[in-house]
Amino acid sequence: xxxxxxxxxxxxxxxxxxxxxxSVVMGPFATQILAQLGAEVIKVETLEGDNMRxxxxxxxxxxxHIFLHANAGKKSIVLNLKHAEGREAxxxxxxxxxxxxxxxxxxxxxxxxLDYEAVRLRNPRIIHVSCCGFDQDGPDAARPAYDDLIQxxxxxxxxxxxxxxxxxxxxxxxxxxxxxxxHTVYAVTAALYARSQSGVGQSVVVPMFEAMAxxxxxxxxxxxxxxxxxxxxxxxxxxxxxxxxxVTSDGMLCVLxxxxxxxxxxxxxxxxxxxxxxxxxxxxxxxRAANIDEVYAEVARIMRNRTTAQWRTLLDAADVPNxxxxxxxxxxxxxxxxxxxxxxxxxxxxxxxxxxxxxPTKWSATPxxxxxxxxxxxxxxxxxxxEEAGYTxxxxxxxxxxxxxxxxx
Length: 409
Known about the structure:
single chain, about 400 residues, alpha/beta, formyl-coa transferase, domain 3, 7-stranded mixed beta sheet, 3-stranded antiparallel beta sheet
């Protein structure tokens, strides 16, 4: 499917204006979702630009691949927030916005004069969202936070070691950034709803550490749930080293035989030749959970006896959940993702043909835009946005000369 770039003017958040001071992954991931939902997102960048502009692969300097995917649908303005006039420009723009969002450490944001107290003086209806490392009421409030650090601090490497990696390791995706980004999206939308009821704005803090701790402990608190503890931490089904794609006679297949109905279908499909259906380890959900290593090992042994295609036909007929093991290349060509328009092909004005990803939800009355503007060049919209905020061309030139802002070169 081929999509055309355009400014987003539809979606459930159409009419919402966001001043976005976020960078790297967590914040931009959140604000890109909000842009896909119809919000106008004004991305405020430093003179050097978002760090992810400079992480390849890329065709042209300043347009790295992660930046392209996390910042489509936004407008870029470059402001030097350490310059008095640059800060004033940000505050002036905040007067006309619904949401002010940053992932600058709150202490640094306060030093810049852009904390909630400062911004709400200019706009009492503003929703001021601070994406930070830690809840500000704790002893780690001022600590810096990055995805690797938060993954480590919330136990992801420990879990990987329990799972069977040779040594503790981080998950190979920006897990903490994206989990926290999703918390940020619902925080913004819930705060907008609250304001629609009360008429006033508020400050919202979205901390990475607490967001990921909730994510991890929800699965793995286990016996520590109770006081005193009645067992070790860790959800055994997720931690068994046998929980992985199964090897077939000619490839790999992902299979989850989960509930009693699935197991009955599986045993019927394989013909019960070895009597596993009568094995007490397989009899109930609790029994399987208590013997998960042996259960998954037995399934792995059986799966080697047929080809991937044979298994898919057999398992589909028995209504046993299964899916192929895909690579990123496979996903880009996936018939489901292509048919739904989630993956589409576009032509970026400067970066040329590229694949883009749509918003994954579907709405009956206020659907997200099917196309949106491409990720902007650094400072591409500086003049336009300053003019909309009330600056004259002459005053914009003065700001540029003073080093308070810059435009796309």
